[in-house]
Amino acid sequence: MPNIVVVGAGVSGLTSAYLLSKDGSNTITVVAKHMPGDYDIEYASPWAGANVLPMATKASSRWERQTWPELKRLAEEVPEAGIHKMKSRVYRREKDLEKLRKGEYAFDGLFQENPWYKTLFDDFRELPKDELPAGIASGAEFTSVCINTMLYMPWLVGQCRANGVVFKRGVLKHISEAAAWGHAGGGSKKVDFVINTTGLMASRLGGVMDPDVLPVRGQVVVVRNEAPYMVSKSGTDDADDEVFYVMMRAAGGGTILGGTYQKGQWESQPDPNIALRIMKRAVEMVPELADGKGVQGLDVIRHGVGLRPYRNGGVRLEKERVDGTWVVHNYGHAGWGYQGSYGCAERVVELVAEASNQPKL
Q1: β-strand 230-233 against 83-93: which pairing, if any?
Q2: d(Cα 250, Cα 359) in Å, to the nearest integer?
Q3: In sequence order, which residues have a C-beta less than 8 Å from that of residue 129 and are 6 or more positions away?
Q4: C-alpha angle with apex 78: 146 to 42, nearest 5 degrees?
Q5: Rounded distance, CA 162 to CA 242, Å?
Q6: According to the model, what pLDDT value does residue 141 have?
Q7: Looking at residue 127, what DSSP letter applies?
Q8: Around Cβ 123, how many Cβ atoms within 10 Å?
Q9: Of 34, 229, 250, 340, which sits with the fewest C-beta atoms within 10 Å of its C-beta?
Q10: Please, are residues 165 and 107 in contact by the beta-carbon 8 Å criterion?
């Protein structure tokens, strides 16, 4: 029975532990500095929206394609997971078309005029001109999902614990230290595999120290107002690193108004000027959000900042030997960690299986 330690308890770590534990053939320990219920700038998952708005290009869409059916199933069949369906609209601004056509926009595939994901959603449709707001060249609508992270993360922990996964608090300075955190199973404490899901901290963890990992600062405003639909728009008039989205979390989780996409920014405190711009954009695009009362009609729960774990070159999903132990890396998801979580975790399971069949070195 392979003994596995998963380092990190964000959505990537929990989903990896969950899939690795499903058939009962592995002994699994999750060790992490931060656990669900914590709020810390190093811990991205609680701050996420989180929803499914495909961001990959067609060539790199495997992880999102594989994840969507499971998130959809959970929304339909497992209410305790804290996921619900919502209509989603994606708008392409007239002034952004040139950048979109040149592939210069930050969100890659989301705002493509002929997106690959039109075959992913059963009710995908391009919006006719009479349904488009002023200044919008084109848009699409489809039913997606939005996740209440405050419910979904503990639900994942519960699924893991039901499968025998053990959770431990710990701070690692080097990835090789994970080999000392396994718990007894199959008669041995020897750790056979370490799964590295440390997100942004992969840039600072000994034995990894990935220079391609950097934060992308996302500032949001969470309000009690209910949104009639999710919406995302290409670009804003305020700044190149400010973006627009609105989504309502399931089961009373509040409505997320966003946001920013500031690469290389570590600042953890909300900027009040950015917050005001976020709220103004939201009520202008979705006036019914505040019953036509503008910013004054918003009932603010809190302001928040999360750091997306971005990686130049894309997600790192591969295995390597570190100090004689197999390490499987699963980090660098930027802003699509939830909507790619099952696809990436399935790849982790594959990599563990591949390494298990290789001769010991």
Answers
A1: parallel
A2: 47
A3: none
A4: 50
A5: 41
A6: 98
A7: P
A8: 8
A9: 229
A10: no
Task: Spell 53-86 as b/e; 16+ CB within 10 A means b.
Answer: bbbbeeeebebbbbbbebbbebbeeeeebbbbeb
Specify the 3-state DSSP secondary structure of 169.
strand
| Angle, CA of 126, 54 and 237, to the nearest 5° | 75
Over residues 299-354, the pLDDT tens digits come to: 999 999 999 999 999 999 999 999 999 999 999 999 999 999 999 999 999 999 99
Dihedral-angle region of residue 355 (phi above 0 means left; psi in -120 to 50 means alpha; beta otherwise): alpha
- HSE-CB at 27 with a 13 A cutoff on CA atoms is 15
Summarised one tens digit per residue, pLDDT across range 21-36 is 999 999 999 999 999 9
For residue range 68-111, what is the model confidence (pLDDT) as tens digits? 999 999 999 999 999 999 999 999 999 999 888 887 765 668 99
Q: Is residue 93 within a helix (H) or strand (E), and if so which, with residue range?
A: strand 83-93
3-state SS class at 131: helix
Q: Is 262 helix (H, G, I), strand (E, B) or coil?
A: strand
CA 332 to chain CA centroid, nearest Å: 10
Strands 242-248 and 255-260: antiparallel
